[in-house]
Amino acid sequence: MNPNADYLGIVTMLRSLREQGLISGSEAKKIAARLRVQLGADIIISL
After folding, report:
1. Fewer Cβ atoms within 10 Å of its own Cβ: the N or the C terminal residue of the chain?
2. Nearest Cα to Cα of residue 16 among 7, 31, 28
3. Contact partners, residue 39, CB within 8 Å, separation at least 6
4. Superkingdom of this entry's organism (predicted)?
């Protein structure tokens, strides 16, 4: 699997959750940062 593709999918999901009001913007950023490290992704995508 490609860590960057996985990370992109997760960021897309986090954006959707944030837009629906299920998580806050700061929560989404914290989750994305943690998962970026765990997955080993080397791309940077802003939320």
Report:
1. N
2. 28
3. 3, 6, 7, 10
4. Bacteria
